[in-house]
Write a structure and sequence with these properties.
The structure is a single chain. This protein is an alpha/beta fold and about 270 residues long. It has a single domain (about 40-270), classed as Rossmann fold. Helices cover about 45% and strands about 10% of the residues. Helix 3 packs across helix 8 (about 220-235), helix 5 (about 140-155) packs parallel to helix 6 and helix 7 (about 195-205) packs across helix 9. The radius of gyration is 18 Å and the shape is globular.
């Protein structure tokens, strides 16, 4: 690392530590919805962008953790992502057409399994572009799109879920800004919010040397995807991911730390 880069690196790490120390102490809107009905939410559509599809897709890691947990049928996930997209790029109504996306799944030795005809998803996990919810020209679009999509889902009896993304590595102040807007949108539309961004902040505060990002400072490393997946699983099932045997190839001790961080974040955010 060059001498000129050192002060910048130290200042960013210090900013993350200050931010994480303040999580839970700064005024922040509290989530109104703190859980899904686990008995009626087994099949999920993931609608988002590259933050979801990095590292062989986050939905796949959630499914693997669900299988390893052995706490009921494996959560089925289908991911619909567009690189660089905002939520307003997606046509939610078209994704939910009868016997369209999700009509069949690939199981076992790449065998095709035809799913029950009709509605394919119990819930939709939605994420906007990484800065759209806090961008001065796109914040209103974020709230308008969440409202529109939540109404589309509600008419079909599908639960709306929002995925709170993480701050850029070099812009830790985004954590609280994103948390506030996602929580406001969740409360306004009776949607569960998954606080992945807060989990990132907590993990970095505890282990400043842990790399949760790709070199672009935006997309997740495998550890970042795993942390987010553990946060998703704990959010939608209401059960702790701590002790899950699926590690995605990460060191077991690191996986346990990420699982615990995810669970601690959920306990704090939901006020359980």
């Amino acid at each position: 690392m060059s001498k000129s880069a050192c002060p910048r690196f130290v200042s960013v790490i210090f900013a993350w530590m200050l931010l994480a120390a303040s999580v839970g102490t700064l005024a922040q809107t509290r989530p109104a919805v703190t859980r899904l009905d686990p008995d009626s939410a087994r099949s999920f559509l993931w609608v988002g962008n590259s933050f979801f599809y990095y590292n062989n897709s986050m939905h796949g890691h959630v499914g693997a953790m669900s299988t390893a947990a052995g706490q009921g049928p494996t959560l089925r996930g289908t991911s619909v992502t567009i690189s660089g997209s905002g939520l307003d790029w997606h046509d939610m109504a078209s994704y939910l057409r009868t016997d369209g996306i999700g009509r069949y799944s690939f199981v076992g030795n790449n065998d095709i399994q035809f799913n029950k005809s009709g509605r394919q998803f119990d819930a939709v996990i939605m994420m906007d572009c990484s800065q759209c919810p806090i961008h001065p020209q796109l914040k209103s679009v974020f709230h308008e799109t969440v409202k529109k999509d939540a109404e589309i889902l509600s008419r079909q009896g599908i639960q709306a879920v929002l995925f709170m993304s993480w701050a850029y590595k070099d812009r830790p102040e985004m954590t609280q800004q994103l948390a506030e807007q996602y929580t406001l949108a969740g409360n306004a539309n009776r949607a569960l919010v998954i606080p992945a961004g807060l989990a990132f902040s907590r993990a970095i505060a505890a282990r400043p040397g842990l790399e949760l990002y790709q070199p672009d400072l935006r997309h997740p490393s495998l550890a970042g995807t795993y942390l987010a997946a553990a946060t998703v699983l704990g959010s939608i099932t209401g059960k702790s991911p701590v002790g899950n045997s699926y590690t995605a190839g990460l060191d077991v001790e690191l996986a346990r730390f990420l699982q615990q961080t995810a669970w601690d974040t959920l306990q704090s955010y939901y006020g359980r």
